[in-house]
């Protein structure tokens, strides 16, 4: 068994319309699925990705209307990276953010790659990362209808940064339980803080990395809009997922058991610092119930929710995705 890389990250928004505008119109990602939170069907769950929403390209958002602002701290997924093809694409985005008055920083090196930190309208902490020097898991496929050219388009998820107070406990889960390898470390950009440690799985590269940041100067995070709910790692298929369930149970972790999300199948558990991990299968995929050319245009519901469509739609605020 070996995890193949990062599968998706699920974050929080208080405004689905604002979120949709930013991630599709500004960042040029494709809305590959407009559905609902399967644990609370009164709110949207939006999935963005490449042309098909391939595993490793998915950034998803739960809409929680009136959610309080996220308060940054430890025991958190503190940064989501988005891959672009090369350093020139990074320069393009820096210019774009300047024109559009989007909060951003200077281009700096992190972990041997050039990066550009920026924020979405709700303060979500994001990082563009150049794939120019990258080797390992390949990026996604450009969506032909994206407002961003193929040369500058987002290619998928890059490294995920976890910020914790006691890193060794999280490191033990990543390496001893999940099979990640420690690759290297790089200096923190925060003064007087330990180096950030890099772990990778599968083929490695930016699409298969987790970065661990140790911070003793921060309180615990209070999750809200602009925060991240969980990170998911790629599992080949159902057979391997069931083996992972056995392995995690044997290690003494409480877990969700097998969860059928229809578009993929999952297992959830919390590592010792309280961060929610998910293991998710590569399939069946987002074109299971919609044609590829029309992904995300209408409200999609898995079969077990379809009988409740009328009640579900009545509770949702209309969201124009065509």
Automatic annotation (TrEMBL):
What InterPro entries does the record point to? Extradiol_RC_dioxygenase, Glyas_Bleomycin-R_OHBP_Dase, Glyas_Fos-R_dOase_dom, VOC_core
Q: Which residues form the VOC domain?
A: 5-131, 156-282
Which organism was this protein described from?
A: Metabacillus herbersteinensis
Upper taxonomic lineage: Bacteria, Bacillati, Bacillota, Bacilli, Bacillales
Keywords annotated in UniProt: Dioxygenase, Oxidoreductase
Pfam families attached to this UniProt entry: Glyoxalase (PF00903)
Known PANTHER family for this protein? RING-CLEAVING DIOXYGENASE MHQA-RELATED, RING-CLEAVING DIOXYGENASE MHQE-RELATED
A Gene Ontology MF term for this entry? dioxygenase activity
Tell me the domain of life: Bacteria
Please state what the protein is called: Ring-cleaving dioxygenase
Give the stretches traversing the membrane.
Answer: none
């Amino acid at each position: 068994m070996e995890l193949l890389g990062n599968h998706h990250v699920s974050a929080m928004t208080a405004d689905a319309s604002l979120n949709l505008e930013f991630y599709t119109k500004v960042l040029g990602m494709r809305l590959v699925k407009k559905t609902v939170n399967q644990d609370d069907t009164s709110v949207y769950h939006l999935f963005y990705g490449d042309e098909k929403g391939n595993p490793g390209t998915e950034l998803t958002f739960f809409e929680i209307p009136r959610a309080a602002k996220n308060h940054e701290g430890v025991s958190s997924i503190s940064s989501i990276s988005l891959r672009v093809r090369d350093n020139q694409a990074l320069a393009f985005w820096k210019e774009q953010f300047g024109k559009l008055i989007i909060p951003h920083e200077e281009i700096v090196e992190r972990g041997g790659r050039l990066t550009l930190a920026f924020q979405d309208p709700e303060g979500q902490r994001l990082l563009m990362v150049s794939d120019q020097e990258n080797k390992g898991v390949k990026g996604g496929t450009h969506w032909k209808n994206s407002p961003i050219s193929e040369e500058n388009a987002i290619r998928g998820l890059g490294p995920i940064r976890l910020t914790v107070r006691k890193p060794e406990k999280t490191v033990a889960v990543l390496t001893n339980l999940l099979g990640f390898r420690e690759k290297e470390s790089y200096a923190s950009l925060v003064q007087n803080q330990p180096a950030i440690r890099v772990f990778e799985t599968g083929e490695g590269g930016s699409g298969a990395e987790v970065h661990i940041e140790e911070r003793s100067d921060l309180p615990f995070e209070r999750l809200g809009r602009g925060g991240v709910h969980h990170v998911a790692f790629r599992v080949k298929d159902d057979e391997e997922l069931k083996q992972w369930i056995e392995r995690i149970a044997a290690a003494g972790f409480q877990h969700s058991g097998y969860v059928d999300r229809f578009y993929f199948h999952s297992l959830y558990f919390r590592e010792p610092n309280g961060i929610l991990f998910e293991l998710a299968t590569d399939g069946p995929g987002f074109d299971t119930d919609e044609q590829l050319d029309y992904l995300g245009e209408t409200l999609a519901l898995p079969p077990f929710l379809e009988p409740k469509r009328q009640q579900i739609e009545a509770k949702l605020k209309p969201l124009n995705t065509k």
